[in-house]
Specification:
mainly alpha, globular, 629 residues, two-stranded antiparallel ribbon
Length: 629
């Protein structure tokens, strides 16, 4: 596998990973152990109160009437020392399927950056000065990467109101239909941007981190949480930081904030985090009493407490033999997923299948899982933009180089090696066909195009009987537009390959409506592909105004119809706010399938992206629509 990057079989993107969720303080005086659920999973919400004052260089936030998408997003009571007391007479919460997009716990609404009223509690006792004041980072600009690293510019959100942006993030339910739009959204969320007006910088970072967790981007989410100094953490940031740290399978990332998090009294997870961090630091004598106290006070029980105990044992000199049995576990929470993955505990497939879509991304990015085990999740993650084509090739290179790998991914790895190292072009093209034909579902089939993008770019156009459409789709799935355009003379006019090249052409010449009429896409009995082709051309500015009007009427694509979403994305484009445009585009493309996206939505997305200078992304999204329908 030397030719296809076997020397980098474990890329840097897998340097961290996998999974988790938070826990909430139990009712005081509870008579029996309670199953640990992430916040918002059936727990009653106490009346909001102002968070305690914290000594810091910047004003601390207080609650504001920001909009919440669901009861789980309502701000909950914060106590600096004692746990929240819930009446024990409340009926038990009904069983819920955990970690579904609509059930996932949501950080509270953003407080406005105003001064907090004086608190009787001296919260300074819980704050540790981990660094000198001159080394602390400002909350006026928070993020992970800049334009040099491929992220957006600091003014990506322009003059947009921060509370409005946070509401969009909080209500977004990944995955998105488009791989390329997901990649653009990650770039926007990770960017080192100016904190928008109306919000606290830590809270805005928390919303971005939390959305990245739900997208399956565990590594990016943890990096966003760590972009804020723990001394500046707000209650919302504590929640998002726990989600991100455990989603990446790194309980040790909780340790800098564990003491302050436990003092807030919001989540049971922070209480156990103190014990885990003591164990990870090698002070088992301190960790065991904490664990015993947690067990006695019924903070946790069953598999949740055993997993925390296993983390503590792994960090000490005397390893503890803790056996995890899943027979009585009805569902998988992120807490269970994260600590199990961090400690090398195998999770039953039945629990994985019922978990959130984000879990597949977390698994794909986990370095603690064997390459063969990660393969199925990696295929899904690549189709959703979480893994690049190069990273996916590296994973299969590691599978090919390893021993005792599962038969299916091992077979794909062998065919992929032939696609790179075959004796002639015919042998390489035949191997590509075998890789493409094996999957049965749409997402996996597109992932195989992503996997083979670089190999497809090496196939010569002199091949006698090429699979032109899939070769072009594979190259464009990873952005090889220049190599794909070499096949322009081989692509039959009116076919899918021809349509994709027409949309991906960076020259962007205006064409006539006759080209739309000439397109007859494969498997397009209902004409959706043709309508998408027209909408994309119109959004990219490739049709005249008269042709747009003609096509809209002939194909029944109402590109001129306005609603609140079209007005919002048009205004963001007019204000030159690429970050806002991408966030609104993602809002309009919340579907697991391209068949759930109306053609007029694609028109507005392409037009807005083109308007803010993201023409390349618009072209790739348009071509992806044809490839995946």
């Amino acid at each position: 596998m030397r030719t296809f990057r076997s020397s980098r079989a474990l890329p840097a993107i897998f340097a961290t990973a996998v999974l988790a969720a938070t826990l909430t303080i139990p009712a005081a005086g509870q008579k029996g152990p309670e199953s640990i659920l992430p916040p918002g999973f059936g727990d009653p919400n106490p009346a909001p109160v102002a968070p305690p004052a914290r000594p810091r260089a910047r004003p601390a936030p207080v609650s504001s009437p920001a909009a919440n998408p669901s009861p789980s997003a309502t701000p909950r009571a914060v106590s600096p020392v004692a746990p929240v007391v819930v009446p024990t007479t409340l009926p038990p919460a009904p069983p819920l399927v955990p970690l579904l997009p609509t059930d996932v716990p949501t950080p509270g609404a953003t407080p406005t950056p105003l001064a907090t009223p004086p608190s009787p509690t001296d919260f300074a006792a819980f704050v540790r000065a981990d660094m000198p004041s001159y080394a602390r980072r400002s909350l006026s600009r928070v993020g992970v990467a800049g334009p040099a690293e491929g992220a957006m510019a600091p003014d990506a959100f322009g003059r947009a109101d921060g509370r409005y942006l946070e509401t969009l993030m909080r209500r977004l339910r990944p995955p998105l239909a488009s791989r390329w739009l997901s990649i653009a959204l990650r770039r926007a969320l990770m960017a080192r941007v100016d904190t928008p007006r109306g919000v606290n910088g830590a809270d805005f970072a928390a919303e971005r981190s939390w959305l990245l967790v739900r997208m399956g981007e565990s590594v990016a989410a943890r990096a966003m949480a760590q972009a804020v100094d723990t001394e500046d953490y707000t209650p919302k940031m504590f929640e998002a930081a726990m989600q991100a740290a455990l989603a990446s399978g790194d309980p040790a990332a909780l340790c800098p904030a564990a003491e302050d998090g436990a003092a807030l009294g919001r989540e049971r997870g922070w209480v156990l985090a103190r014990a885990m961090c003591a164990g990870l630091s090698g002070t088992a004598a301190k960790a065991q009493p904490m664990l015993a106290a947690a067990r006695k006070s019924r903070i946790a029980g069953g598999v949740d407490l055993l997993l925390a105990q296993k983390v503590i044992g792994n960090g000490g000199r005397a390893r503890q033999a803790v056996t995890i049995e899943w027979d009585s576990v009805p569902y998988l929470t992120a807490w269970r997923f994260g600590l199990a993955t961090a400690t090398g505990v195998e999770i039953p497939e039945s629990l994985l299948e019922s978990s959130s879509p984000a879990v597949q991304g977390w698994r794909a990015l986990s370095p603690s899982l064997a390459p063969g085990v990660r393969a199925a999740a990696a295929d899904i993650a690549a189709a959703r933009g979480i893994l690049s084509s190069a990273a996916l090739v590296d994973l299969y290179a590691a599978i090919d180089a390893g021993d005792d790998q599962p038969s299916t991914p091992a077979g794909v790895a062998r065919n992929l090696r032939t696609a790179y190292e075959g004796t002639d072009a015919d042998a390489r093209a035949d191997a590509l066909g075998k890789v493409w034909d094996q999957p049965k579902d749409d997402e996996a089939r597109y992932s195989r195009l992503v996997l083979t993008a670089s190999a497809a770019a090496r196939i010569p156009t002199s091949l006698a009987k090429p699979d032109t459409d899939r070769l072009i789709a594979a190259m464009l799935s990873a952005g090889y537009d220049t190599q794909a355009l070499r096949w322009g003379g081989k692509a039959e006019r009116g076919g899918d390959g021809w349509a994709m090249l027409t949309l991906a052409d960076p020259a962007g010449a205006v064409i006539g409506y006759g080209e739309v009429s000439a397109y007859a896409g494969a498997k397009d009995a209902d004409g959706l592909k043709r309508r998408m082709f027209f909408a994309a051309l119109a959004g990219l500015g490739r049709l005249s105004a008269a042709d747009v009007t003609q096509g809209a009427e002939a194909l029944n694509v109402p590109v001129s119809r306005a609603d609140s979403w079209t007005r919002a994305i048009a205004k963001a484009a007019l204000d030159n706010e690429p970050g806002t445009v991408v966030l609104l585009a993602a809002t309009g493309m919340q579907s697991r399938s391209w068949r759930g996206i109306p053609p007029e939505t694609l028109y507005h997305v392409c037009a807005a992206l083109r308007s803010v200078g993201m023409v390349g992304e618009a072209r790739m999204i348009a071509a992806e629509a044809i490839a995946r329908l």
